[in-house]
Amino acid sequence: MTNLTQQAAFNHPSDERHSSNAETSRPQTSDSQISYSQTSHQQTSFVDVFKKLSRADLTLKLYSQTACDVERALQNPAANLDSLLALLSPAAEPYLEQMAQQAVALTRQRFGASIGMYIPLYLSNLCANECDYCGFTMSNKIKRKTLSKAEITDEIRPIKAMGYDSILLVSGEHETKVGVPYFKQMLPVVRQHFSYVAMEVQPLEEQDYRELVTEGLDAVMLYQETYNPVTYAEHHTRGKKSDFAYRLESPDRVARAGVDKIGLGVLLGLDDWRLDALLMGHHLDYLEKTYWRSRYSISLPRLRPCTGGVAPKVELTDKGLVQMICAFRLFNQQLEISLSTRETPELRNNLFALGVTNVSAGSSTQPGGYVEPNTELDQFEISDERSPQLVAKAMLERGLNPVWKDWESGW
Ligand code: SF4
After folding, report:
1. Between these two residues, 329 and 1, which has the higher pLDDT value?
2. How far apart are CA 334 and CA 331, in angstroms?
3. pLDDT per position as a tens digit, 100-155
4. Mean pLDDT to the nearest integer, 262-290
5. Percent residues over pLDDT 70 in the chain
6. What Gene3D superfamilies would the database entry show (predicted)?
7. pLDDT tens digit string along 10-48?
8. For the chain, which residues make up each domain, given as ranges?
9. Which element (helix H / strand E) includes 108?
10. pLDDT (mean) for 272-284
11. In whole angstroms, how far apart are CA 211 and each of 52, 126, 129, 206, 214?
């Protein structure tokens, strides 16, 4: 087998730029940093589990793992949080090639050579939150737009022409103008054209999710952004999203409402990616054990430039991204791993083979952007601007099959 990690990361030109020591140096953290608002939940949720986790202990363990710990983890990585910790640690870096080979084998065993193709459709850039890394943040003086039914139908036409059958509906978080009544009106419009419909919008109540499922909702992507409550508070300064605990317990509500697939994610660059990834692993482990009927996916977006946005505090190198993907694949063979157009074509081409299962291409990150592109409305900059056909061609050249339709909820 060729050297997989060299293909995927080491040869990538931007690696030089990213190879700072800050990456492997141990970040300062202590349990005294943890302070988040009281959750209003009545039922048990991941918040209860999270409160018992010690950031200080986990950080200490992450940065004191040895080669022996990593070798032990490689023998028994599946569903083992201690192994995930070892595989995410700096001590696992010399084992990246071995991790990559195991990750590829596990991915092919479970998913074959298939890679699911999906595309985001931005419904609205209205937002009532202040998140300093996002182009849609409330205080940004950009033109705001929410698509009408007719405009959604207009957007769907070029999307269908690209060959898509799986769609991710995205909006800013604005409950009054882009809330459940709006979603209930728009979902049936979208549903008639796509066999799989996912949403990435504000967290909703359990009953809201139940109602949206009856309108055709298949999946909900709900990213915590960072599992560090202090960093979270620094970046989410206004609006409902500033409630760390409410967001943290949201996937519980999604699962209880019977949504088929739940997506977790962290915005890599906001905080120590190793610890954020590990805590996302704890979240995933809890959800899978508690709500075993749902499927799960993760997304690993790196912080990208946007209008008025912030620079990454902790930069994740390409090599680090490869380590994360491999560690999660070894931890969970069933897990779907998404890769967006935030990454460059070169890196994406190489990551397709590693463990990624869902890929977007030809994406616009603005409402109305497929009919009338206007970069002023973008949520963030896209790095891979290739057409879906070119991305599919790159997959085929690597012996992979782009899959445009893999789901029919009526069956
Ligand atoms: S990240 Fe989401 S909630 Fe925050 S400003 Fe952007 S769209 Fe709004």
Report:
1. 329
2. 9
3. 999 999 999 999 999 999 999 999 999 999 999 898 999 999 999 999 999 999 99
4. 96
5. 85
6. Aldolase class I
7. 333 333 333 333 334 455 544 434 444 444 556 799 999
8. 106-403
9. helix 96-111
10. 97
11. 33, 23, 25, 9, 5
Report how far ligand 1's centroid is from the alpha carbon of 379 (Å).
9
What is the Cα–Cα distance from 338 to 300, expressed in whole angstroms? 7
User: Which class for 111: exposed (0-12), middle (13-18), buried (19 or more C-beta within 10 A)?
Assistant: buried
Q: Is the CB of 117 under 6 A from ligand 1?
A: no
Write the pLDDT tens digit of every residue in 335-344. 999 998 889 9
Residues 6+ apart with CB under 8 A from 195: 165, 166, 405, 407, 408, 409
Compute the C-alpha angle 78/80/85, nearest 5°: 115
- Does the CB atom of residue 173 touch ligand 1 within 6 A? yes
Q: Please state the separation of Cα 247 from the chain's center in Å.
A: 15
Q: How far apart (Å, rounded) are the C-alpha atoms in residues 411 and 404?
A: 17
Closest Cα to residue 215, out of 189, 241, 183, 188?
Answer: 188
Q: Which of 123, 134, 307, 310 to mutate to test the pocket of ligand 1 (most atoms within 8 A of CB)?
A: 134
